[in-house]
Design goal:
The complex is a heterotrimer of chains A (492), B (325) and C (139).
Chain A (H helix, E strand, L loop, with lengths): L2 E5 L10 E6 L5 E7 L6 H4 L8 H5 L7 H15 L6 H26 L1 H5 L11 H8 L1 H22 L8 E2 L2 E2 L5 H30 L2 H8 L8 E6 L11 E5 L5 E5 L8 E4 L8 E4 L16 E2 L2 H7 L6 H14 L10 H20 L19 E8 L2 E9 L5 E7 L1 H4 L1 H15 L7 H12 L19 E5 L5 E6 L7
Parallel strand pairs in A: 6-11
Antiparallel strand pairs in A: 1-2, 2-3, 4-5, 6-7, 7-8, 9-10, 12-13, 13-14, 15-16
Chain B lengths: L5 E6 L5 H7 L3 H9 L1 E4 L8 H5 L6 E7 L2 E3 H13 E7 L1 H5 L11 H11 L14 E4 L2 E4 L3 E6 L9 E3 L6 H13 L48 H4 L15 H4 L17 H11 L6 H8 L5 H5 L19
Parallel strand pairs in B: 1-2, 1-3, 3-5, 5-9
Antiparallel strand pairs in B: 4-8, 6-7
Chain C lengths: L9 E6 L3 H10 L10 E4 L7 H9 L4 E6 L10 H19 L6 E5 L5 H18 L8
Parallel strand pairs in C: 1-2, 1-3, 3-4
Helix pairs in contact in C: 1-4
Classes of the chains: A alpha+beta (492), B alpha/beta (325), C alpha/beta (139).
Chain lengths: 492, 325, 139
Amino acid sequence: MTQRITIDPITRLEGHGKIEIFLDDQGEVANAYMQIPELRGFERFCLGRAAEEMPRITQRICGVCPTAHHMASARALDALYHVDPPPAAHKIRELFYNLFTFEDHTLHFYFLGGPDFIVGPNAPAAERNVVGVIGKVGLEIGGKVIEARKQARHFMAEMAGKAIHPVFGLPGGISKPMKSDLVDALRKAAPGLVDFAQFSLQAFADIVLKNQAYVDTILADHYAHRTNYMGTVDPDGKVNFYRGQLRVIDPSGKRLYQFEPREYLTYIAEHVEPWSYIKFPFLKTPGWKGFVDGPDSGLYRVAPLARLNVADGMATPRAQEHYEQMFATLGGKPVHSTLATHWARLIEALQAAETVERLANDPEILSPVVRRLPEQPPTEGVGVVEAPRGTLIHHYATDAKGILTMVNLMVATVHNAAPIQMSIDKAARGVIHAGKVNDGLLNQVEMAFRAYDPCFGCATHSLPGEMPLRATIRDARGLIVKVVERNSRLMV
Amino acid sequence: MADKPKVAFYWCASCGGCEEAVVDLEENILKVVDAVDIILWPCAMDFKKQDIEAMDDGSIAVAFINGAVRMSEQEEWVHLLRRKSQMVVAFGACAHLGGIPGLANLNTKQEVFDTCYHDVPSMDNKGATVPGMESTVDGHSLHLPRFWDTVKSLDQVTDVDYYLPGCAPPADLIWSAINAILTGQLPPKGAVLSPNKACCDDCPRKDSKPDKLEITEIKRPATHLADPELCFMAQGFICMGPATRGGCGNRCIEGYMPCRGCFGPMDDVFDQGAKFLSAFASILTPRDEAAIDALLDQIPDPTGTFYRFSLPTSLLRRGKMGTPV
Amino acid sequence: MATAAFEPRIVAFFCNWCTYTASDLAGTARLAYEPNAPVVRVMCSGRVDPQFVLKALQEGADGVLVGGCHPGDCHYQEGNYKALRRFRLLKRVLTQFGVEDERVRLEWISASEGDRVQHVINEMTGQLRKLGPFHQARS
């Protein structure tokens, strides 16, 4: 008799999902499915809207990475209106974007996907969250994480109105120049962000890389897939979050394509299944082959690991050192171990912080010229950025008055939808045997998803200065397991 | 240890921005966690649906529900949480007004599916597959929730005690609301937890607004530069401030962009979009129909602008009706 | 719903000084017209908040008629110009909502034009009989 196990809802991520696992008579996994049970329909209800409103509409696709949509949309508007922003506008946008990438990546490592890793894959559910992380890294460090995020977001709000749903993106630039006191504050704060990014990598080395069991988990076969990879690179072939060309490599690391964003339709398409509302992109050559990896796979992955796989290196010096160390440790490029994404993510956070430092000290960002008005009527345009979760494509067409007639959005996580489905299925087969199912094992299945999709972590405790901390640890039924006060050590 | 009130956070058709807004409480989160037990928060904690189903009715003190109601599963969760909770707060513009997902009420369900699963240029779907509620894969039956014809606000689905406006609600407003709930110092049921005055009241550009606003030309942010200090309306840019409740800190104005109305209307207004339409039309200068129409031609998308966040809670609620599927 | 049995309900907002007086005149002159348009008297067409129009549709009206003084004749100088501007903008919004053009109408009818009241109400009633009931808001 087939047994059916449902994980509903999946947790510690942004968005809704459920996992259905079917066991055969021997208690082995026959099939597993990750179903996305929601659809909102942006590609339809944005038709008829004014194009310049899109940065403020499409960012409501995701309140965790609204900046990614806002920026991809602004880039699409630049293309749509055939207008190139002035250099200062590009730099300010890029500065803003790297602030965001830094804080989003940092948050994910400590509070979302990180707990599985930092606290341990088999830790009790009650500890698989920020409280367990703080117990592992210490209260002081927990406070530093909150502070780093807070700083970055306050700068973002000053630059663009708000951190959640910023407002300043327009065709040809931005609405608001930088004020000199803000730039001074940024210059002072930037080295601290770089330090913290380096600290995070050190924490990763101490907690994860020095623990052989964790390293084995990273390299375990049931968390690996040999897929193609896609990411954005700058003219030197280095990782860039804000703009560049798209590059695709095959599972062996061979470069397949490199193209301008506007050419994306030549290379990728989307597939539909009746059992999930999400779409499944694939490479047009070799085409849709189903949820399989390997040399004939049509699937490709995006996000930090993919970006590091496709690029020739990082664009900043300290991040580059870590890039080299990661690939040396994991046996060369490309790396197929999904959980290595956590490491790649921290390397990207470091590049983001270094980029913030560089741009904050660029005198051009003080220029008042941050906007170039369009001179031609709008027609069609594609904008691409690298969201923390992966490549994000906005494609618009309008009539001559700039009213949208076509909207196509290929959102970062969607590129990974088929790989995620594959990962869930493979992880389930890998960890569930002989019908044995428990909370820890089911969480190991969920871990396969979490590595792909940084969402938001609950910074449930903010620890500036002398504020007391009392952490209450509950089990999955809400019953209190343990209470920890500030000066006591949490025993894991 | 004394029993702390149980608190739930849930999201319907949501972007997650309201969750981020809670995290933006920063230091104050500590006080919240000290004062309450969070027993549901899917984005951050591992409590599952059966944990809530197992609770006694009314045992949750407050459920903060964000997101619009778009899918049948979201409506089920709303009814579940209403049963289990003493108080339900509509958190954020989507729960309060319908929000951005509410723009889909100008389309039919068929149109949404046709576009998303067929018309977009990246689609490769010659078999015209469409996600359905029931499907059989590899011999297993899988279920998906139903996509309703119409997006609804939270109070169109269940009884709502209070509304916390904004997209997303600002941290200080969230903090005031939580404090008010914990100390029992709430206004009468049904209140929107932000002052009953227009955004214009606190706007940093208020002093530059002339007593008599007259618009002879309507400008679009795409094609015009805005003066960084003057009232947007006085310059001819559409700004929803006059028809929008204040309390947001005028953050969009501080970002040098006009208001788009996310806090919804003030008390005693049925339809935010109609209210703004009335005010805006009043201050246009032309008097003859041809000149009026020529000026109105300069507004690219009246409905999508005036009803950006409030379409499901407008008087008409939706555009052409969809075919039930 | 059988179209033969359907009788449209129109809510008419008439300004006191012109159109309402004209409808009185139609009455005293015994000009018969369709009974489908109960009248709400307002002091000026500029008093008609677009919310009135939408609320009427939401609450069961199949059409809304607004009557005011001819441009230049407003008892309060500016009121009917405001009404005209609001109406023209409201029509665009209604089009985006998919509301048929015939359902919401603005007419300038002076105090002496009782026959015009007769004509407009007859015409609008006939058009709405053909269009059928207004469904949208009652989902």
